[in-house]
Amino acid sequence: ISDAFHYGLKNRIVFLLVIASCAWGLSISGVELLWQPQTKQILGSDTQTWIFGLLGAGYFAASALGNLIVTPICKRFNNNYRGVLAGMRFLMGSTLIILALQVNIFSFIGLYWVLFVFNGIMNSPHAALFNNNIPEQQRSTLLSFESFMLQIGGLIGSVVFGYISKLFSISNAWYIGAMILALSSLCYVFLPKQDQET
What we know:
Layout: H1 2-10, H2 12-43, H3 49-76, H4 81-100, H5 105-132, H6 139-167, H7 170-189
Protein backbone atom coordinates (compact mmCIF):
# COMPACT_ATOMS: atom_id res chain seq x y z
CA ILE A 1 0.00 0.00 0.00
CA SER A 2 2.86 2.35 0.89
CA ASP A 3 4.60 1.65 -2.44
CA ALA A 4 1.37 2.29 -4.34
CA PHE A 5 0.79 5.52 -2.43
CA HIS A 6 4.28 6.81 -3.22
CA TYR A 7 3.90 5.77 -6.86
CA GLY A 8 0.67 7.75 -7.02
CA LEU A 9 2.44 10.82 -5.67
CA LYS A 10 5.52 10.51 -7.88
CA ASN A 11 3.83 9.63 -11.17
CA ARG A 12 2.52 12.89 -12.60
CA ILE A 13 -0.25 11.29 -14.65
CA VAL A 14 -1.59 9.14 -11.82
CA PHE A 15 -1.34 12.05 -9.37
CA LEU A 16 -3.35 14.39 -11.61
CA LEU A 17 -5.99 11.72 -12.30
CA VAL A 18 -6.38 11.01 -8.58
CA ILE A 19 -6.74 14.74 -7.86
CA ALA A 20 -9.38 14.93 -10.60
CA SER A 21 -11.27 12.01 -9.01
CA CYS A 22 -11.09 13.60 -5.57
CA ALA A 23 -12.40 16.92 -6.96
CA TRP A 24 -15.23 15.06 -8.69
CA GLY A 25 -16.21 13.27 -5.48
CA LEU A 26 -16.08 16.55 -3.57
CA SER A 27 -18.26 18.45 -6.03
CA ILE A 28 -20.79 15.80 -7.01
CA SER A 29 -21.46 14.93 -3.38
CA GLY A 30 -23.06 18.37 -3.07
CA VAL A 31 -25.38 17.62 -5.98
CA GLU A 32 -26.30 14.14 -4.75
CA LEU A 33 -26.86 15.45 -1.21
CA LEU A 34 -28.91 18.49 -2.12
CA TRP A 35 -30.84 17.83 -5.35
CA GLN A 36 -33.96 16.67 -3.50
CA PRO A 37 -34.27 19.70 -1.17
CA GLN A 38 -33.49 21.97 -4.14
CA THR A 39 -36.25 20.29 -6.16
CA LYS A 40 -38.65 20.69 -3.25
CA GLN A 41 -37.71 24.35 -2.98
CA ILE A 42 -38.43 24.93 -6.67
CA LEU A 43 -41.76 23.06 -6.47
CA GLY A 44 -42.75 24.72 -3.22
CA SER A 45 -43.66 21.32 -1.74
CA ASP A 46 -42.75 17.65 -1.95
CA THR A 47 -46.25 16.44 -2.86
CA GLN A 48 -45.39 15.87 -6.53
CA THR A 49 -43.38 12.77 -5.74
CA TRP A 50 -43.41 11.54 -9.34
CA ILE A 51 -40.97 14.34 -10.22
CA PHE A 52 -38.44 12.97 -7.74
CA GLY A 53 -38.81 9.56 -9.35
CA LEU A 54 -38.43 11.08 -12.82
CA LEU A 55 -35.25 12.87 -11.81
CA GLY A 56 -33.82 9.74 -10.20
CA ALA A 57 -34.60 7.52 -13.19
CA GLY A 58 -33.27 10.16 -15.56
CA TYR A 59 -30.00 10.25 -13.64
CA PHE A 60 -29.28 6.62 -14.59
CA ALA A 61 -30.53 7.07 -18.16
CA ALA A 62 -28.38 10.18 -18.65
CA SER A 63 -25.27 8.41 -17.33
CA ALA A 64 -25.98 5.46 -19.63
CA LEU A 65 -26.41 7.82 -22.59
CA GLY A 66 -23.06 9.43 -21.79
CA ASN A 67 -21.39 6.01 -21.77
CA LEU A 68 -23.11 5.18 -25.06
CA ILE A 69 -21.94 8.27 -26.96
CA VAL A 70 -18.40 8.54 -25.55
CA THR A 71 -16.81 6.38 -28.27
CA PRO A 72 -18.00 8.46 -31.26
CA ILE A 73 -17.13 11.64 -29.36
CA CYS A 74 -13.58 10.44 -28.68
CA LYS A 75 -13.22 9.37 -32.32
CA ARG A 76 -14.45 12.77 -33.43
CA PHE A 77 -11.59 14.32 -31.45
CA ASN A 78 -8.99 11.77 -32.65
CA ASN A 79 -9.00 9.92 -29.31
CA ASN A 80 -7.66 12.97 -27.53
CA TYR A 81 -8.80 11.77 -24.12
CA ARG A 82 -7.15 14.67 -22.34
CA GLY A 83 -9.08 17.19 -24.40
CA VAL A 84 -12.39 15.34 -24.13
CA LEU A 85 -12.03 14.96 -20.36
CA ALA A 86 -10.99 18.59 -19.85
CA GLY A 87 -13.89 19.80 -21.99
CA MET A 88 -16.49 17.58 -20.34
CA ARG A 89 -15.31 18.49 -16.83
CA PHE A 90 -15.47 22.19 -17.66
CA LEU A 91 -18.94 21.74 -19.16
CA MET A 92 -20.03 19.92 -16.00
CA GLY A 93 -18.93 22.87 -13.90
CA SER A 94 -20.66 25.34 -16.21
CA THR A 95 -23.86 23.26 -16.23
CA LEU A 96 -23.90 23.08 -12.44
CA ILE A 97 -23.73 26.88 -12.21
CA ILE A 98 -26.70 27.20 -14.58
CA LEU A 99 -28.54 24.45 -12.70
CA ALA A 100 -28.12 26.35 -9.44
CA LEU A 101 -29.84 29.39 -11.01
CA GLN A 102 -32.99 27.52 -12.07
CA VAL A 103 -36.41 28.40 -10.65
CA ASN A 104 -38.40 26.43 -13.22
CA ILE A 105 -38.75 22.71 -12.59
CA PHE A 106 -38.63 21.68 -16.25
CA SER A 107 -35.39 23.52 -17.02
CA PHE A 108 -34.01 22.17 -13.75
CA ILE A 109 -34.83 18.59 -14.77
CA GLY A 110 -33.28 19.03 -18.21
CA LEU A 111 -30.04 20.54 -16.89
CA TYR A 112 -29.79 17.95 -14.13
CA TRP A 113 -29.87 15.22 -16.77
CA VAL A 114 -27.38 17.07 -19.01
CA LEU A 115 -24.99 17.28 -16.06
CA PHE A 116 -24.96 13.51 -15.78
CA VAL A 117 -24.68 12.96 -19.52
CA PHE A 118 -21.37 14.84 -19.32
CA ASN A 119 -20.47 12.78 -16.29
CA GLY A 120 -21.22 9.53 -18.12
CA ILE A 121 -19.04 10.60 -21.04
CA MET A 122 -16.06 11.03 -18.72
CA ASN A 123 -16.10 7.59 -17.07
CA SER A 124 -14.46 5.46 -19.77
CA PRO A 125 -11.72 7.88 -20.94
CA HIS A 126 -10.69 8.58 -17.35
CA ALA A 127 -10.57 4.87 -16.52
CA ALA A 128 -8.60 4.16 -19.71
CA LEU A 129 -5.97 6.77 -18.91
CA PHE A 130 -5.65 5.61 -15.33
CA ASN A 131 -5.32 1.93 -16.23
CA ASN A 132 -2.80 2.68 -18.98
CA ASN A 133 -0.50 4.45 -16.54
CA ILE A 134 -0.32 2.09 -13.57
CA PRO A 135 1.91 -0.99 -13.30
CA GLU A 136 0.15 -4.36 -13.50
CA GLN A 137 1.50 -5.50 -10.12
CA GLN A 138 0.02 -2.44 -8.38
CA ARG A 139 -3.19 -2.12 -10.38
CA SER A 140 -5.67 -3.27 -7.73
CA THR A 141 -3.99 -1.24 -4.99
CA LEU A 142 -3.83 1.93 -7.05
CA LEU A 143 -7.44 1.53 -8.16
CA SER A 144 -8.39 1.18 -4.51
CA PHE A 145 -6.28 4.25 -3.69
CA GLU A 146 -8.11 6.29 -6.33
CA SER A 147 -11.46 5.06 -5.04
CA PHE A 148 -10.41 5.95 -1.49
CA MET A 149 -9.49 9.50 -2.53
CA LEU A 150 -12.79 9.83 -4.38
CA GLN A 151 -14.65 8.76 -1.22
CA ILE A 152 -12.61 11.17 0.90
CA GLY A 153 -13.60 13.97 -1.48
CA GLY A 154 -17.24 12.89 -1.24
CA LEU A 155 -17.13 12.79 2.55
CA ILE A 156 -15.60 16.26 2.78
CA GLY A 157 -18.06 17.60 0.23
CA SER A 158 -21.07 16.20 2.07
CA VAL A 159 -20.06 17.98 5.26
CA VAL A 160 -18.88 21.23 3.69
CA PHE A 161 -21.72 21.67 1.21
CA GLY A 162 -24.30 20.65 3.77
CA TYR A 163 -22.97 23.37 6.07
CA ILE A 164 -22.81 26.00 3.31
CA SER A 165 -26.36 25.22 2.16
CA LYS A 166 -27.62 25.60 5.72
CA LEU A 167 -25.69 28.78 6.36
CA PHE A 168 -26.37 30.42 2.97
CA SER A 169 -28.26 28.44 0.31
CA ILE A 170 -28.09 25.32 -1.84
CA SER A 171 -27.35 27.49 -4.86
CA ASN A 172 -24.31 28.97 -3.15
CA ALA A 173 -23.07 25.50 -2.27
CA TRP A 174 -23.45 24.44 -5.91
CA TYR A 175 -21.61 27.53 -7.14
CA ILE A 176 -18.59 26.47 -5.10
CA GLY A 177 -18.90 22.88 -6.30
CA ALA A 178 -19.14 24.12 -9.88
CA MET A 179 -15.97 26.17 -9.53
CA ILE A 180 -14.13 23.14 -8.16
CA LEU A 181 -15.36 21.03 -11.09
CA ALA A 182 -14.36 23.64 -13.66
CA LEU A 183 -10.92 24.17 -12.11
CA SER A 184 -10.31 20.42 -11.92
CA SER A 185 -10.47 20.35 -15.73
CA LEU A 186 -6.90 21.68 -15.52
CA CYS A 187 -5.84 18.28 -14.15
CA TYR A 188 -6.57 16.88 -17.61
CA VAL A 189 -5.11 19.86 -19.46
CA PHE A 190 -1.74 19.32 -17.76
CA LEU A 191 -1.60 15.59 -18.51
CA PRO A 192 1.25 14.56 -20.84
CA LYS A 193 0.15 13.40 -24.28
CA GLN A 194 -0.85 9.73 -24.31
CA ASP A 195 0.39 7.09 -26.76
CA GLN A 196 -3.16 6.16 -27.86
CA GLU A 197 -3.86 9.71 -29.00
CA THR A 198 -3.55 9.95 -32.76
